[in-house]
Amino acid sequence: MAFLSAANRSFLRAVSHLLYANPFLPEMVTFERQALRAEMIEEDPLWSASVSDPDRVRANTWLIMKRLSPLVKTLRASLAHGEAANPNDLTLYEDGLLYYFYYKHYQQLVQATFHSKARDKDRWAFYRDYCDEWKFYFELSNVTFPSGHQARHTFACYFQIVRAFHHIFDQIIGNSGPAARLRASVWQSLFTHDIRRYRRTLFGRMSEFATLITGPSGTGKELVARSIAMSRYVPFDENKLAFEEDPPSLFFPINIAALPGTLVESELFGHKRGSFTGAVQDKRGWLEACPPLGAVFLDEIGDLDLAIQVKLLRVIETRSFQAVGEGSAQLHKFEGKLIAATNQNLERAIRKRTFREDLYYRLCSDQIATPSLRRQMDESPGVLKDLILFMARRVAGSEGNLLAEEALAWVETNLGADYAWPGNYRELEQCVRNILIRKDYQPQRVPAARAKKDDLFSSAREGTMTANELLIRYCTLVYGQTGSYEETARRLEIDRRTVKAKVDEGELRRLETTAN
User: Fold this and answer.
1) Are both 190 and 118 inside the same structural domain?
2) pTM for this prediction
3) How far apart are CA 28 and CA 17, in angstroms?
4) pLDDT for 193-228, tens place per residue?
5) Residue 60 shares a structural domain with residue 89
6) Which of 349, 369, 389 finishes a domain?
7) For residue 48, is pLDDT > 90?
8) How far does Cα 199 stand from its chain's mean position?
9) pLDDT for 374-401, tens place per residue?
10) Residue by residue, what is the 3-state secondary structure of 205-245?
11) Of 220, 224, 194, 218, nearest to 206 (Cα)?
12) Cα-atom radius of gyration of the chain, to the nearest Å?
């Protein structure tokens, strides 16, 4: 008799796919269906926080566990009694065990990670039971498993997965295609597209890859950065029954646009006493304060002075830096992860020579784009109601449902379905707050930009432009709003190369001057 029957092999293969799948991609539903077949409960493929059902575990997961739990016990008994299994079947069994261990201990992991106030040794005491069960399944005298999983490392991976899912699921909200793709993109930024490889080797090397987050203002770029920083791999110390770092203390944000250039340099690199007026004592910068498992977040990196860009480039290339006013022989090491964000078009900034091209290419090994609220609504109109309810509950507590009804009715009556929401999620939250206090919201208007747009439409109506001139002006106008050739091409439903050829730099500068 074979170690795995055809039915069990098919089931475990689907479980293996689920184990390593990106949970925020629709492929998860495909693998659930392969595992459960007729028992499958149809759920929304866009797995997001729901105001009506905030559960983070899909119902199908527990159906899979109901079948998996007795199966792994039976297979373990077969192996213990000397039944032979080929390496491929053993690998499927291993993956089934990893899935089983994660969800069996899921509630304990969540409780210890987010809710327990006990000391570390008490908080993670269940690790001992976890290890005993691990030995029972994985340490059989007559079996050598192909993948060589270790209890401690796997426990640390489980801890990371719980945190990553929590931050992505709770912070990046919206039941729309763009929001779902953003959640999937953040997950991939943490674990790469191949979580097997990540588990084997990359878990200790992700600080070598900078992450660049782009998108309009108010679209949650800092939430994305915080999710990444607080969801990194942290080793577990078996002797102390504690993790080596506390994830909430590993995020070091700097808003470049909010500080003068000299202060940005000091905050980032630190300074020596007397290096400039007001430097009355030595100061450690974020790069020095950040531990190897931490992350420094540079918000609005497009505003960074060119001189500081040169120093930052050196940090990325050599992982070393000097404090302001420090001698050339004194070098500090930066071993953490660098995350940067901007709402600017860095390609345009490079052409204007306000941003270094070599720094851009060092930053963009991992890129994440945050979608605008308008883009979410265009693809999924119902998302506005869900987002308003989330925000209303956050600002009004038990009165949130009533406030949401009031805010949605006000928006529909006064702004309409076509309102652009130029301030994105930040503007929507302020709208909800304004309605809570005054039952009114006055959006910021930009009449100059509107007038320029009206000039374009007036010229088109009067028939005074050729088709090529109209395309040039319209491509330039939309590109000026989006800052992206790809997004402009998507909106206009034309090829990206056509957009790039038609954008007029002179007209673009005039639009920017008018808007300012």
Assistant:
1) yes
2) 0.84
3) 8
4) 999 999 999 999 999 999 999 999 999 999 999 999
5) yes
6) 369
7) no
8) 19
9) 999 998 888 999 899 989 999 999 999 9
10) CHHHCCEEEECCCCCCHHHHHHHHHCCCCCCEECCCCEECC
11) 194
12) 27
How many whole angstroms separate alpha carbon 388 and alpha carbon 436? 12
Q: Show which of 369, 393, 417 is a domain's final residue.
A: 369
**Strand 211-214 versus strand 366-369 pairing type:** parallel
DSSP state of 111: I
For the chain, how long is the longest CA-to-CA vector? 88
Whether 362 and 487 map to the same domain: the answer is no
**Residue 207 forms part of a structural domain:** no
Other residues' Cβ atoms within 10 Å of the Cβ of residue 485: 19
Q: 68-113, pLDDT tens digit by residue?
A: 999 999 999 999 999 999 999 999 999 999 999 999 999 999 999 9
Q: Are 131 and 149 found together in one domain?
A: yes
Could you say which DSSP state residue 377 is in? Answer: H
- Which amino acid is it at 379? E
In a domain, 210, yes or no: no
What CA–CA distance (Å, rounded) separates 304 from 367?
Answer: 19
- At residue 49, the pLDDT reads 54
pLDDT value of position 1:
65
- Regarding whether 50 and 121 lie in a shared domain, the answer is yes
Q: Quick check: 448 pLDDT over 60?
A: no
Please give the average per-residue pLDDT across 224-247, as a whole number. Answer: 96
Question: Rounded mean pLDDT of 258-283?
Answer: 82
User: Are 187 and 135 in contact, with CB atoms under 8 Å apart?
Assistant: no
Rounded to an integer, what distance in angstroms lies between the CA atom of residue 491 and that of residue 342? 21
Measured CA to CA in angstroms, residue 350 lies from 314, 361, 511, 513 at distances of: 18, 11, 19, 19
Which residues form the domain of 416?
A: 378-438
Q: Which residues contact 212 (CB under 8 A, 6 or more apart)?
A: 301, 340, 341, 342, 363, 364, 366, 367, 368
| Distance in angstroms (rounded) separating the CA atoms of residues 57 and 6 | 28
Give me the residue label for tokens 């002075």: 305
The H-assigned helical ranges of 27-119 are: 27-36, 59-80, 87-104, 106-110
- For the chain, the domain total comes to 4
Residue 178 and residue 376 in contact, taking contact as beta carbons nearer than 8 Å = yes
User: What is the rounded average pLDDT of the residues 322-339?
Assistant: 86
